[in-house]
Description:
Blueprint: H1 4-11, E1 20-31, E2 42-44, E3 56-60, E4 63-67, E5 73-74, E6 76-82, E7 89-95, E8 111-112, E9 116-120, E10 123-131, E11 135-141, E12 152-153, E13 160-166, E14 172-178, E15 191-198, E16 203-213, E17 226-233, E18 236-243, E19 251-257, E20 265-266, E21 273-274, E22 287-296, E23 302-309, E24 322-327, E25 329-331, E26 334-336, E27 347-349, E28 367-371, E29 383-385, E30 393-395, E31 400-403, E32 416-421, E33 426-434, E34 443-451, E35 454-463, E36 466-475, E37 484-490, E38 497-504, E39 507-513, E40 520-527, H2 533-536, E41 543-549
Antiparallel strand pairs: 1-28, 1-31, 1-33, 2-27, 3-4, 4-6, 5-29, 6-7, 8-10, 9-10, 10-11, 11-12, 13-14, 14-15, 15-16, 17-18, 18-19, 19-20, 19-21, 22-23, 23-24, 25-26, 29-32, 30-31, 32-41, 33-38, 34-35, 34-41, 35-36, 36-37, 38-39, 39-40
Amino acid sequence: MIPAAVAAALLMAAPAQAAEARFDWFDYQGRDPGGVTAGPGEYRNPILTGFYPDPSITRVGEDYYLVTSTFSYFPGLPVFHSRDLTTWTQIGNAIDRPTQLDFSGLGLSRAVFAPDITWRDGTFYILNTCVDCGENYYLTAKDPAGPWSDPIWIKGVEGIDPSFFFDDDGKTYLLNNGEPEGPALYRGHRAIWMQEFDLKAQKPVGPRRVLVNGGVDISKKPIWIEGPHILKKDGWYILTCAEGGTAEDHSQVVLRSRDVWGPYEPYPGNPILTQRDLPAGRPNPVTSAGHADLVDTPSGEWWASFLATRPYAGDFYNTGRETFLLPVTWKDGWPVILESGKPIPLTHARPTLPPAPAPTLPLNGDFAVREEFDGPELGLHWMTMRTPKSVWRRFAGGALALQARSEPLGSRGQPSYVGRRQQHANATAATRVEFAPTHDGDRAGLAALQSEDFFYLLSVGRDRGRRVVRLERRAGEGEPPHGTLVAQAPLPGDGPVELRIEARGGRYDFAYATRPGAWTTLVRDADGTMLSTKTAGGFVGVTFGLYAYSPEPSE
């Protein structure tokens, strides 16, 4: 997660002789409701399950690369590779050095918003916005696995969702969402802007102009036009954008022009993707679809990656916004992802590309994985909250050791927490922890965390001199940093303890074992809807993670 040289530098700043919690292993198992399976010649949606929002995709020869948002998690902006568009492997993180960006003090749904990945003349580009931490910038790399450059800041361009369009005459254009030219006419009134960009000088040049004001029909007061991408096909400049916000009214729209500067006319059949017109209560619903990016194959097929959500009830989902894939049909020169009124299919015929072998780490479908923590580094999919300032974890004889530091889980600092995504509505996370609490308030264990304000923590701790297992819940920023106590039980002896969290849609069960597999349920049917985006807000999904804390400073 952190290059060895960077880790060594941070280690010099790490406190010595801090109390540690040792985690011997971590198990994750997940399955989706409905019994959906892909048949021969089919793939399964989403292609990236769990909190992988705002996908951007590009092709270089026969290779496809995709990047998604991570907000205030570190490392950030995961980069994926595929040869068949449906089987993906994470190959790196574009933000993997603490010196690149600083997320200190930010809520988990701030920092790095929707990225855009493109390639030109041997160089990969990722454009992005660091909200509340520097605004618009881009990174470059010769190898998409990294290393990626330090941020190159784009001065004078406000707003979010920047992207590059490389025209066939050699010119480069910068697109992004921003405020309208005059006063906003209503809440959510935004515009799509464009300006030529000088790659050698690393700055925008010439006039900056509005391509779309408000959306495809400003008389209807469309909100949050964003995520712009331009492609060129058959002499047309095709401009696709998200519209309607990222909730249930989310959609994708398209406009086109014969001139890169416009005027851009909207497709009469807009939107080209949405699920807002489907009936509530349908089986296996997919909602909130939009923020698409289009890519072609060498044989001329077109496909779209986009985000959507899978609620377990109503508009409740804990897995965040996920990455889906569907083919694009061209109708009279217009790209259409899905006809109005049609539900997003959870299985679909595969692209006409050679199928790739299954990845080592599954990213979609039902699966089970086990982490043995045998080093030398955590997998690329593990994340911490915000940018690290010191090293507080290490591999120790087949275990992951975390320093029990005095940074609480419910703060905007960087707690001793490492997590991976909850990728299924029905999921189980388990671990075994060895921890000898020496102060009342010491904690080490397993969390189901949506943000610093909404989480459950199942931990081994100490209360009035006794070693206990406890469940705590934080359900809002007004509660204490570790929330309130839900339940606790005494623990015999000082041996290792197994901890388990089981999610069943909107219900979570919490159990512990002092002998392998001899589970005792501490709490059953706890409210899991508090971990949903509907309740907790923001743009992230739940992570299951390992955590250690002591109220006593470790220095």
